[in-house]
Amino acid sequence: MRIEARTAISKPMIYIAPVLAIAMTMIAGMGLFLVMGHDPLASLYTFFIAPINNLDGIAELMIKATPLVIIGIGLSFGFRANVWNIGAEGQLTIGGIAGGVLALAFFEVDSPLLLPGMLIVAALGGMAWAAIPAFLKTRFNANEILTSLMLTYVALLVLSLLIHGPLKDPDGMNFPESRMFHDAALLPILVEETRLHAGVFLALAAVATAWVILGRHIIGFQIKVIGMAPRAASFAGFDQRKIIWLSFMFAGAASGIAGICEIAGPLGQIVPTISPGYGFTAIIVAFVGRLHPVGILMAGLLMALSYLGGENAQIEMNMPNAVTGVFQGMLLFFLLACDVLIKFRLRYK
Amino acid sequence: MGLDNGLQDGEKEGVQSLLSLRGIRKKFPGCLANDDVDLDVLPGQIHALLGENGAGKSTLVKMIYGILKPDGGEMLWKGAPTAIDTPSAARMLGIGMVFQHFSLFEALTVAENISLGIPEELAGPGLNERIVEISQVYGLPLDPTREVHSLSVGERQRIEIVRCLLQSPKLLIMDEPTSVLTPQETDKLFKTLERLASEGVSILYISHRLEEIRKLCHKATILRSGRVVSECDPSQETARSLAEMMMGDDLTLAERRSGTEPGPVLFEVSRLSCQPEDPFGASLKDISFALREGEILGIAGLAGNGQRELMGMLSGEVLSDSPAMVSMGDVPVGFLGPRRRRKLGLGFVPEERLGHGAVPDMMLWENGFLSAMQGQNLMSNGFIKVAKTIGFAHAVVNRFNVKTPGVDHNASSLSGGNLQKFIVGREIEQNPRVLIVLQPTWGVDAGSAAAIHQELMDMAANGAAVLVISQDLDELFAVSDRISVICEGRVSRATPVSETTVEQIGLLMGGLQENDSAITGLAP
Amino acid sequence: MDGTDILVSSVLTVITAATPLAFAALGELVVEKSGVLNLGIEGMMIVGAIVAFATGVTTESTILAILAGALAGAVMASLFAFTVLVLMSNQVATGLALTIFGLGFSALVGHGFVGVSYPGLIKLDIPVLSTLPIVGPILFAQDVMVYLSVAMVAAIAWFLTRSRAGLILRAVGENHDAAHAIGYPVIRIRFFAILFGGAMAGLGGAYLSLAYTPLWVENMTAGRGWIALALVVFAAWRPWRAFFGAYLFGGITIVQLHIQGVGVAVPSQLLSMLPYLVTIVVLVFISKGSVRQRLSAPGSLQKNFYAAS
């Protein structure tokens, strides 16, 4: 069996490959369940179908998908430009803290401006944290994968420091949690009896914005060219540094907003763990979504389902939560493998 | 054994071929690279393989060297049928190859590079001494301990050759060896090759340089579109007859324009100097020249003497240390990037098509946008005007005869010549006042090259100022009005082409002296 | 305890902290020298950790545990190698996928081993020499893996600079097109390099769960795989420097733990940040010297190799 280059990329494969990858993940997943001593089909049902069987489930799906989609969209710009921001989790954390601090600072104030203010401050916080690897890369050529990743660990420690100290709820019996946010600082609930909050609109807005920019805007074009052929970008007169900064700022702002959406949404307060690894999962979302806004939307929903499935499996089948990470890793892995079929053809000899 | 090896005048009866190819065929998706090729190389013979770009020469020798496998036909070594499956098998037979693009490792030393290219048994202790010995005997001096990135192109070629010679080859294949050498270095190489031939080593010499083949080779096999179209003794032919055999009836040479008075200066470079960012790059020293309306200036130079760095500074991809180092008309543009220089009327074509002049995986019309976005008003409020951009790409394709199924095809799907026509045409269609091109016809088939030369000359005739930076002296002498030389980051004073010769330019390409007298050595 | 005892015990803890980093960094160094960037180290380390721990607990054999850890790392690495070399997928994304998968997989497998204790690795007491003051316990009474790490750095350094196979590996990493043109099997060479790197990462992880803290904790690698990546850059791809770098970082980790233990009035989180911040600072300083970088970084690093034939 040999791999041979196609003369032109296969358009159908662009859509078939993700489907193929999902199928392979399912099969591998069933194998995994089997090995762990569970009925494969029943487990698959518990994992993928049961969680979204009812209204509440669908609401939860959208709640989990929201930060994944927002961050995934933010990251996709950078990835297209070959800027590898792996620190979204840290940017989410710092942004969330920033927005949350605003909420706590005004915890007696009842203004409609508070929520938008929190969003803006969170975006700025995320951008500030993302500015560090951006600066180190453009000024010192330091590898952004490592710098952004190291900063994630630092950000989590900063959160721990603050939540055990200045941000602790003074009336909270010394638990490392902040005060519960008051109503003006919480995202409005969209559907009664669920936790579905207005952050969903932000996710959709992100998708739409990205679609427009990447499709036909000069900034999207610059990003694509820089990612595909950096010297051609130089030929065209595109400024690499500007695009590197823009990539980090998009991602930082998106991550910060996602962070505050979690805090002002399902969490309602600042806690030591704001996110179950959304910043990393969003990387998978971006890739599975092929760095395309609509793809990211769908991939976000799929990944959110994997979170819900893991939780459900934990409850129903007593499986450790880690099974979620396994599924997510497998899906990305299979997708990368199937992607080869887009540019290359398998030849049997 | 009675092989019919097509005896020509002057060859001895009964001399068995060292290498024979019978009916060799090789097909790639979309093209038949070699079609029923017969070839005979005798021992001690310098045998030219002649043909223009794309004729199938490289493919043929890659099969001889074991990199590719033929789809049909057979190969005979010393009369016995052989299959050459890998380069090591070829080397074991006694076949050595010096590639056009060197297989060298920049960060490693000369000795390490040579060691990697020879079988393990030969690479033991004493290698350094043997390298020095062979390199001196054959006139190719090398220091085994130097790192390759510090060597000139000519010196690097010596590594490739010595690497082959250490294995005592019986057949040495050389693929376009002189494209990177000065005329003087070429003469030295020829002496080495003649010495080898006198010792019984056969040489298969690939080139499209007719004068060299006439000087050096005993026999020539001419390929066109993958087929052998004739065989001859090159010393009995003229350059013109060889060219006719190479290109058949398609021989159209570009028409030289009659000399006209050049107009005012449109683009000027004034004491341009810069240090490269890249550790492997060349620094530019105190360069000055001017481009005049209606005139083509040619700058000749071997790769690695600063052309790329110079191009970067002229286009604006690299900014100068002071604004006045580069100026267009009266405007100092040293601090302006490519987009602003294009606004002032500059067009430029970089050396590399895929990756620099065009994005390989983007469609042709998107590649058109790369340089035309401002000048052709292809944006509105930051949004790309798709229909208009497509229209522009169509205009370029039609006017410049670019063969492509459509402007929505990727740049990488075009042949080298056609893509180059598109890239050059993209600039010309925008009617720049100043056009700067680097290696405009490198790797391009003769037909497209002639078309590009004609376009450049038409541009000048219409009042533009054109600069052609190139390694190809034939090209420069064909199109330029004045010519100068770039060597080690310096540019000589320009002389009218009619007042100098290829030899004199060759000397300058080989090395300029520190003091001015040699630079201005060509009397105006 | 007197001064020398404190000194000795500090140095011993530094050695324990440095050894996992040393294994991982050395392995990655070889991989990168062949031209591949492996971001899956963290995943390979953690899988090595759990497999080694599980094997050690169930079989009670140290040797089997260590081998199992290395094997696990190599198996993970083979997945990476296949995807990146044969299927030519993006190296960054594939490495990340492997890390995420590895972290999840190890947590899954490790679920049943939380809270189980392990006796740790035995220290080999070299007769006579280990009784020397100060030097004795530090140099001559270490466990087998520490000695293995020293042997490996020497072996790798010799391999890369003095052996023909090492020269070929460097050539492949320097310019894979040229290596292919000469006739070297680029993919096969890289495959073995990646397997080696995975095995070394597995050994590093195994040391964490068998010796450093002889327990299983989810995510116990805590980013060491990433620090190992930084170490390779810091070392300018030279084995002894990577070893030294591992000890430097091991030292920093221990120092901040000790400061925390001593009860200095600095919040523990700030001290825990130290290794990560130092990594960033080091990266900046290394990257600034871009000329030297260019010459020491393997020329084909991270570029996918497609043999057009």
Give a quick rundown of the structure:
The complex is a heterotrimer of chains A (349), B (524) and C (309). Chain A is mainly alpha-helical.
Q: How does this model look, in words?
A:
The complex is a heterotrimer of chains A (349), B (524) and C (309). Chain A has 349 residues and is an all-alpha fold. Chain A has 13 helices and two strands. Chain A has helices spanning 11-35, 40-49, 55-80, 88-105, 114-140, 144-163, 199-216, 218-228, 230-236, 240-267, 278-288, 293-317, 323-343; strands at residues 2-5, 344-347. In chain A, strands 1-2 form a two-stranded antiparallel sheet. The model of chain A has no long low-confidence stretch (mean pLDDT 87). Chain B has 524 residues and is of the alpha/beta class. The relative contact order of chain B is 0.10. In chain B, α3 crosses α5 (153-165), α11 crosses α12 and α12 (386-399) crosses α13. The termini of chain B are far apart. In chain B, the strands form five sheets. In chain B, strands 13, 16, 19, 20, 21, 22 and 23 form a seven-stranded mixed sheet that branches. Chain C is mainly alpha-helical and 309 residues long. Chain C contains 13 helices and no strands. Chain C has helices at 3-33, 41-59, 62-86, 91-110, 135-140, 144-162, 164-174, 176-182, 186-212, 224-234, 239-262, 268-288, 290-296. Classes of the chains: A mainly alpha (349), B alpha/beta (524), C mainly alpha (309).
The average pLDDT of chain C is: 86
CATH C-level category of the largest domain in chain B:
Alpha Beta
Number of strands of chain B: 23
Name the shape of chain B in a single word: globular
**According to CATH, what is the topology of the largest domain in chain B?**
Rossmann fold
Q: Give the low-pLDDT segments of chain C.
A: none
Number of structurally distinct domains of chain C: 1
N- to C-terminal separation of chain B?
64 Å
Tell me the number of strands of chain C.
0
**What is the fold named in CATH at topology level of chain C?**
ABC transporter involved in vitamin B12 uptake, BtuC
What CATH architecture of the largest domain in chain B do you see? 3-Layer(aba) Sandwich
Radius of gyration of chain C: 20 Å
Helix percentage range of chain C: over 70%
Biggest sheet details of chain C: none
Name the CATH superfamily assignment of the largest domain in chain B: P-loop containing nucleotide triphosphate hydrolases
User: What is the CATH first-level class name of chain C?
Assistant: Mainly Alpha
Number of helices of chain B: 17
Beta-strand residue fraction of chain C: under 5%
Q: Beta-strand percentage of chain B?
A: 15-25%
